[in-house]
Amino acid sequence: MDIRKTFKKWAAYQQTVRELAALDNRQLSDLGITRTDIQRIARDHANTL
Known about the structure:
By secondary structure, this protein is mainly α. It has one domain. It has helices at about 5-20, 25-30, 40-45.
């Protein structure tokens, strides 16, 4: 795998985790997710790149 693509995926994962973790539990609930979903969602997002 290309190092640039790997870095892009890693950066997208980190940004998604950071943004979702900044939300409070009510906001996460409004989105239909829980704190335990954050890493999976970030991983799924990064893998779509």
